C-alpha cells in the first residue's frame, strides 16, 4: 500500500526491493495473537463460553485447529462496526479436553509462545499427549509448577537441537481429572500466564509468585479476567 516492493508475504522469507520513495497509507495493526490465544485457552480449559474481540485468526490457524481437535468449539466472526480486517472469535470449552500431540515450529507452524498454554490444557485432557519443543530450549519451566498442582508430566531430551544449537525437549503429559490449588512460581512471561489459566480451572486457591512478569505481555489481564467473572486478586 505504501509503494514498497516486497515478495513472500506470509512465508518465512521476505524479499525486499528498494524503491526511490514511499507514499502514505492507512493501516490497521495486527492483533496480538498470543493474547488472543491466552483468552481462548482460558475459555477452553474452564469449559467457558467467551468471545474475544479484535482478533487476527488468519495468523493462528494451526493453534485454532489444535484447540478444535482438543474439543473446543471455535467460531470466527466478522468484527462489526470497525474498518479493519479484525474479527472476533467465539470459544466454547468442552466438558473434557481431548489429548492432542503438537510440535512447535516457526511461523506458520505451531507457535512456541502458545505451547505453555496448550500443554497446560493437555494436563487436564482425557488421555496422553506429547509436546515437542523444537524452537526454544528450556520452555517447559511451567510444567514443574503444574506438577505441584497435580499434573502428571515427564520431560526428556529429544534427539534434535533447537535453532540456537541447544538440545530440544519433549514432554509427555498424562491428563488428570482435576488440578488443585498450590503456591507456584512464575519463571517467565508465558509460563506465568499459563499458570494463571491453570489456576482458573483448579480446585481451591492458587498463589502465583513473581506475577508482575506477566504484565510484560498483557495490558490489564486482571481486569479482563475479572470481567469474565474469574476470582483474581493481587497481594
UniProtKB/TrEMBL annotation:
GO terms for biological process: cell division; cell wall organization; peptidoglycan biosynthetic process; regulation of cell shape. GO terms for cellular component: cytoplasm. Keywords: Cell cycle, Cell division, Cell shape, Cell wall biogenesis/degradation, Cytoplasm, Peptidoglycan synthesis, Transferase. It is found in: Cytoplasm. Gene3D superfamilies: Enolpyruvate transferase domain. Residues 3-225 form the Enolpyruvate transferase domain. Pathway: Cell wall biogenesis; peptidoglycan biosynthesis. GO terms for molecular function: UDP-N-acetylglucosamine 1-carboxyvinyltransferase activity. Its main location: cytoplasm. It holds the Pfam family EPSP_synthase. It is an enzyme of class 2 (transferase). The keyword Cell cycle applies. It catalyses: phosphoenolpyruvate + UDP-N-acetyl-alpha-D-glucosamine = UDP-N-acetyl-3-O-(1-carboxyvinyl)-alpha-D-glucosamine + phosphate. Its EC number is 2.5.1.7. PANTHER family: UDP-N-ACETYLGLUCOSAMINE 1-CARBOXYVINYLTRANSFERASE (PTHR43783:SF1). Belongs to the EPSP synthase family. MurA subfamily. This is UDP-N-acetylglucosamine 1-carboxyvinyltransferase.
